[in-house]
Amino acid sequence: MRGIDLFLTLVVMLSLGAVLWPFLFYPLILRMLTTRPEQPGQGQPPSASLLFCAYNEAVAMPEKLANLAMLKRRHPQLQILAFDDGSSDDTAALIAAQGDLVTLVQGPGRSGKAHGMKRLAVRARGDVLIFTDANVLLDAEAIDNLLARYADPQVGGVLGSLHYLGEGKSATASVGSLYWRIEERLKDEESRTGNVLGADGSIFSIRRALYPDFPDSVLDDLTVSMAVIFAGKRLVKAKDVIARERLVAARGDEYRRKVRIAARAWHTHGHLRPQLRRMSAIDRFKYASRKIVRWFGGLFILTGVMAAFALALRIAPLLAMVGVTLALILLALGLRSKGGPVAAVVDILIAYAATLQGVFKAMSGRTVTVWNPAKSR
Question: In order of start, what are the domains of the chain with their CATH numbers?
Fold first, then answer.
């Protein structure tokens, strides 16, 4: 009997440790690693092309185009390319009206962001390709600070820092903001110790010569940024390259977004697996800690809860039933609330559930190539 209790206790502890690993233990390990400094070089900054894809972003486009115009005034030689993925609103017309600022490439219909970025990369002339999203705004100094990091010949890619707007709009937005602040700190530590293990689409860049070939079904942000590491170059993060984006405020929008991203990320993981195995031991450790462990966080939570319930039943059945009842009440309250700590905990659980659903979706052979902008930004 005691052996079963010990086993269940061990399962609970291991599950809790796995959930906490990417956010507590992994950062502590990173802080113990030595700094790998960059080697500043000399000479003129490289030329650059800025690329973004859009679908039904007519609401965001006036502000985006004004931001691009500001960047163009500071960098007259900056090439700006946009791909419209068959928008049904005025997105393409708004971009086309600024033909002296942005070169518009239109797709035949819904073909996805990966396809669009490949189309743009072929037309790009800059030594450095800068990738961003249609709803993301860059600070005035972002391009200067980003290109300066390429003075080190070992740097093959540079990520920026994403700052979210609208944190107080809902519990979903608050949780998303907290998650991203943790993510940004992890990337800072990874960069300090060598390589960041993958970029998101808000703001990152690579040397054009390193741009890889890949199928339309993968997550292009992850695939393109990881190509830097596979080529033996450094993928680093610049704190002073700042991008700003509005948070998703509605749970439904955020759930669908996380399912889509997780499905494509796991599909991409399968595509990259042969190259991932050839990375250095430290980069494999980083990749597993920040990505694989997190992708299965929902499974760890479910396993831990089931083990804790089984253990409670063995120790005090009445207490176990009271605990389940209380948990269900708190869950119901959290689902009905738009703010507060209970709602935040529920949003965290929903995020884990969405990620796990996306991973299982990809494991079953399904993935997502197209996207729809969140209406609650």
Answer: 48-257 (3.90.550.10)
